[in-house]
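Hello,

I think I submitted the FE2/S2 (inorganic) cluster job twice by accident. Can you confirm which output corresponds to this input? Input:
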Amino acid sequence: MVSQVSVETSPPSAGANPPGVPTTTITLDVNGSPHRLEVDNRTSLLDALRERLDLTGSKKGCDHGQCGACTVLVDGRRTNSCLVLAVSAEGSDVTTVEGLADGDALHPVQQAFLDRDAYQCGYCTPGQICSTVGMLEEARAGMPSHVTTDITNGEIDLDDEEVRERLSGNLCRCGAYMNIVPAVHDAACAHDADATDGATR
Ligand code: FES
Ligand code: FES
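Support: Only one job matched these inputs. Its output is below.
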């Protein structure tokens, strides 16, 4: 339940707008909390989240859409936040890695990564987890990937090849991907079990 709007009209000194720079006041719902903030029109969603809202879980790896470290969910779809202008996200629901858990209860994807020892460094893991959450929804919705062989029945067999292809936009500079695929399978199974029980997460 959201009861209070966080209003930020004065950027912190580190992100202060130079005189004469066009700014826009935007509203974002971030992790269930509404925010209104004035941003330099050139501000990326990633910078708005990290520098204005202190949500530093999303990382700036490349700032060019190439590594996935900045992945968040925008209106439920995984998004490279470094490629999105904050002004273009006006009115959107944004979920960052900080917003996935329900209090002390980890999101099923977080729990699966923990159980499978699939957590990597703090730089790439938040993006991998947000990307997995979005990817699982895409697969459940029947969205094909480059390696989907049968696109006629609307159902995705989320095998290892599908998982690797669908998460290929999230890079680890160390090449330590060993346990992510089994963690994703566990998370998918956990979701299916929850869905059978009538849960929504
Ligand atoms: S920081 Fe956005 S894709 Fe690398
Ligand atoms: S970049 Fe995170 S473990 Fe390699």
